[in-house]
Amino acid sequence: MPKIDEKTRKKIQELREKINYHNYLYYVLDSPEVSDAEYDRLFDELVELEKKYPELVTPDSPTQRVGAPPLIEFKTVKHSLPMLSLNKATTEEELSDFHRRVLELSGLPESKIEYTAEPKFDGLAVELVYEDGVFTQGSTRGDGYVGEDVTLNLKTVRTIPMKLLTKKASLPKLLEVRGEVIMTKSELEKLNKEREKNGEPLFANPRNAAAGSVRQLNSKITASRHLTSFVYGTGQVQGRKFSTQFETIQYLKDLGFHLSQDMKLCKSLNEVKDYYQKILAKRDSLDYELDGIVIKVNDFKLQGKLGELSRSPRWAVAWKFPPQQETTKIKDIMVNVGRTGALTPVAILESVRVGGVEISRATLHNEDEINKKDIRIGDTVLVQRAGDVIPEVVMVIKNKRTGKERKFVFPDKCPVCGSKVERPPDEAVHRCTGIACPAQLKERISHFASKGGMDMEGLGYKFIEQMVDLGIVKDPADLYYLTEKNLLDKMERMGPKLAQNLINAINKSKNADLPHLIFALGIRNVGEHMASVLAREFESLDNLAKQSVEDLTSVYEIGPVVGESIYNFFHDEKNQKVLEKLKKAGVKFPEMSEFGSMGKVKTTVTPLTDKTFVLTGGLDSFTRDEAKRTIEEMGGRVSSSVSKKTDFVIVGKDPGSKLSDAQKLGVKTIDETGFKKMIGR
Description:
It is built from 24 helices and 24 strands. Helix 1 (about 5-30) runs antiparallel to helix 2 (about 35-50), helix 12 (about 440-450) crosses helix 13 and helix 16 packs across helix 17. The longest helix has 23 residues, at about 5-30. Residues about 595-605 have low confidence and may be disordered.
C-alpha cells in the first residue's frame, strides 16, 4: 500500500471542498461556475486518489453519493423530538379560525402576530442529522416518533449536503434538519417512460415516486432516480439558539441547504391570503408538486406559549390547495366524435371535486390507452386535473375490483351517424368515415367560430347545436348568410337584442387576420402555432392553396404528415366550395402585408433572423403571445420544446423543465434583459 504523505491528504481535502462547493452552486443555487467537463475532471481525480488510498475515504466524501451495496432491511430511528403532523385548512374560514385561536391563546393584539408562509411540497418528509457539520444519519418521518434509517439513500440526493458550509455560519455540535424529498414532474415523466419500456408498473404521481425511491433497499436505484430536497425547519439543535422561524431558515440557507425561494414573512392574515393566491396561481407552471402552503407563527417564544396538541402544533397550519387527484368510480364509457371524425372514449364518472372543479367525465384518449391502463367499466380509478387540462384517468386501483367490472369494446359504427369506423394504419385513433356526420359538423363550426379562429363572440356550442339540428347551418360559411329574422323565427330563447349581437359578431369576424383564418378552417394537424407559420411563410390563403406537398415540407417545422393534410384540404372539392362561399359572403382573405409588421421580414436581417427560440417562465414586460409575436416579426421562430436545433431559451420567472433541457443539451439561455437587448429595447 503506497505511503500517504501530507501533500496527498491536503490534495484530497481540497478536492472534496471544491466538489462540495460546486455541488452547492449547481444543485442548490442553480448557478454553476464551472463546465460539466471541469467538474468531471475534479471528481475523477478524487475517485482515483481514493482508489489509491482507500483508508482516506470518509463517509462525507462526495464520492459516496453513488449508492452502497443493498440492505436486507431498514433499521428504525427514534426522533429526538417528534415530527408532528399539521392541522389542515381548506377554506379561508378555516384559516381565519386558526388565526382567531392564535390571538385568543396568545393574548396579543393582531399587530403583534407575524407568520411565515412557505410552499407545502408533496413528497416524503425526512430528518437529517449533522454532527460537527457532517451528515451522519437520515430517516423518514414514519409515525412521527419512529422512522426508518435511510441514510445511504439520502446521501445520493445531491441537494442534501454531506458536509455543511462554514464560511457564513458557525456550526452547532448537533443539528437535526427537517425537510421533504421530492421528485420533479419532468424526472417522473422520464422514469415512467423507462418503466413502461421495461414492463414495470408506473408511478401515479411524484410523491409516490419519491417515497418509493427513498425506501429502496438498494441505494444505487435511489441514486439513479435524481431526487431533490427542500428543508423547512429543525429538530434538536445543540450549540446554537434561534428566536424566530425566519431566522432559522436564513441560517440553514447559509449552511448550504436547498430551500424554497418563495418563503415569505407575513405581517398580517391578509398578507398570508395574498401569498396563498400567488403560489396557487403559479402551481401548474412549476416542475414540482405543491399541495398547499404552510403557515407558522414566526416567534419561537410564542410558539412555546401556544403549545401542541397530541400530534400537531397549535402554532402552525397547512392551508391546502384544491386537490388535483382524486379517487372515483367509472360508471360507463361513451364515445365522442370530434370535428375531424376522431372517436374519443370518455369515462362517465361518479361526480368528484378535483382542482376546485366538480368533474363527472374524464378523457380516456384512445383504445391503446384503455388497454395499457386496463381500464374497465365499474373500476375505481385515480383521476387528475391540472390547470385547464381536461380531466384524465391516471390509473386503476385494481385491489378494489369486485369481478363485476366490464371490458370496453370500441364500436365499429359511428355512434352519431352510423357510418363505418376505421382505425388508419400507424394511428392510435379510430375515425368515422361519414362525410355528412352531424357530430363533425357541429365541432367544425364550433372550431371555426372559436376565439383562436374567427372569434365570433357569443356564439356558443348550444346555439351551434340548434343551428345544425334545425338545418339552417350546414357548413361554416352558412354562418355569414344568417339574418336576424332567421334567428328569431327558428331559434329557441332568442330575443331581438341577442340576435343582433350574434349577427354583429359574425360580421365583425369577416376581417380576421390570416393566421386566425387558417386556424379556423380546421385543417387536420394545423394548430394555432402552425397557422402562424403558414401565414408568415406564404402570406395569403390563395398562395398557400397552390403549394405542392414538396413546397410545403421544404418549410422549417412542416413535416410530411402536416404537408399532406394541408395539400389534401385545399384539393378537396367540398372544401373549395366552402372557401368560395366564404369569399362571396364578404369574408376577407387577407395578406400578411396588410397587417404591417406582422408580415415576414424579407429584406431586413435582424439578430433574430432564422433563429429558433423557446420560452419558459413568466416575463415582466411581455405576455407569452407578445414575446412570440415579436420574435416572429423579426424573422425568428418559436418552438414549444428544446432540441439541439434550438438557438436560445428565454428564461423568465419560475422556469419549467425546459431550462434543465437546455442545460443538458448545451443550448444558450438568456434572461428577459438579454432578450430586450437582442430586440433593441
